Amino acid sequence: MKTGSRAGIKKDGIFGTGIIKGLRVTLGHFIGTYLDDLRWFGKRYYNDEALRARQGADACGVFTVQYPEERLPVPEEFRFIPFLVYEEDEDGNQTLKCTACGICAKVCPPQCIWIVRERDEKTGRPRPNPVEFGIDIDICMNCGLCAEYCPFDSIKMDHAYELAAFDRFTEHIYDLKKLSKPTSYYEQIRPTEAAAEVAAKAAKKARKRAR
Amino acid sequence: MVVALEGETIVDLKPVMGYLHRNHEKIGERNTYIMNMPFTDRLDYLTSMGNNFGYALAVEKLMGIKPTERAEYIRVIMAELTRIISHLFAIGAFLNDLGAFFTPMLYALRERELILDVFESVSGSRMMCNYFRFGGVVRDIPAATMTLIHALVFERLPKQIDDLDTYLTKNEIVRSRSIGVGVLSAEDALAYSAAGPVLRASGIPYDVRRADPYSIYDRFDFDIPTARNGDSYDRYIVRLEEIRQSIRILQQALRDIPAGEVMAVRPQYQPKVPAGEAYGRVENPKGELGYYLVSDGSPHPWRYHVRAPSFINLTSLSKISIGHKIADVVVILGSLDIVLGEVDR
What we know:
The complex is a heterodimer.
Chain A lengths: L3 H9 L5 H23 L7 H7 L25 E9 L5 E3 L6 H5 L5 E7 L6 E11 L8 H5 L5 E4 L9 H4 L1 E2 L1 H4 E3 H7 L1 H20 L1
Parallel strand pairs in A: 1-7
Antiparallel strand pairs in A: 1-2, 1-5, 3-4, 4-6
Helix pairs in contact in A: 8-9
Chain B lengths: L1 E5 L2 E6 L9 H7 L5 H6 L6 H16 L5 H30 L4 H21 L8 E2 L2 E2 L5 H26 L3 H7 L7 H6 L5 H5 L6 H4 L20 H25 L19 E9 L2 E9 L5 E7 L1 H6 L2 H5 L4 H11 L3 H5 L1
Antiparallel strand pairs in B: 1-2, 3-4, 5-6, 6-7
């Protein structure tokens, strides 16, 4: 059998121009890093504007992000671990939007959501409120289906992604308290989506009134 | 893999599989139809958009629905971007296996990073996209992302691919290490039912996008690159050329994309899927990816099977490695471009 090395050498000889031409590309990258450094002149790092340019479509030079000091901004659609939205009135009363209908638990692919619905003490009838809501975030696969199919816009995907902890049983099983976050936080991380929901709600109301 | 040697020459080789087996198909029968979508991301985790595509096609065949026009274009754009990142990764990893330690890999990965930014801003995740739904896609491409895609496709990527080409293609070390190494003849490629760049490098111009045009691939003008010798170098060349063809498709798709809705039906968390069977197949970067679904009308598939191209391409490894030196196996394995998430499922 013809071995690889012999065939290759026969074809173009080992001291060909291919390597030199290739190394020119490497040299271009090498010089490019210094040119880009000069362009920003000491402001290349720890600077939001520079970070955007360094990671954009015209990126040149060193592509690395100095992670703990610099953080890449996450896009609005970024999804990581669900949370529950609550509304707060002037008196500080918090009401969860969640009605414990359980669609999120049904659609969850790895089945990591547990919900217990509130029951009326006298009649035993279910009430639209969760008494327990648990998510095991080590099982959650961050697919976002729960947020997508929630009919009450009450479960949303979070943006916080630094969740490492020492003990998974006490810190990585989120209960109702850990999951609840205010509407203001939701509007802050997902402004377009929140605005679209408000607009859809207003349109629905207007339609009802017209009828 | 288990290799039997005589000196440094390989006399026998057996890939040992199953270390990453995670019951994908059986879990698929427990899951409802929509719940399988994020699981398909985890097959070949470098090409999650392509995996979504095949599964969505299979279920849409069962349900008898068609995505909207804009959704079709978005799907093609995403699938072709996926092909570019997968091939970039394949070329980078192949050069790593050749011993060009990390420089070419990182040049390739930088472009991949930029495309992943696109995926992140449309789907919310860089790799586990979970973006396709039955009848469309989750959401429209935001305007800012569209500008980024335009900048990448029309300006940056063609230039960077040419750079990669001058950097590697004529390099004597790359050529001498890979020409004539791991030759898979056309007959063998067919006998092993290899697919994708591995098959096309052996000289058979078979591409599902052309052979059985799905979605809107019949509207685009593109070539099916092939090579003649079927060695590791040819597989590299075919991948590089396929990136160029993908850019061509992307340019046409971006030119023609219409405005409109991205979902054809009302999104449902448990869509009604009538009884029957369907096979959805796409040309994934690694080869022909097929999903076979049997439905009995219940919310779960009765049978769910995946034809994984990496797995089938890997079976030819033994045949093409015998007779080569042990150091060449790394190169051959790199040129086959397998992803173990898909090999074992």
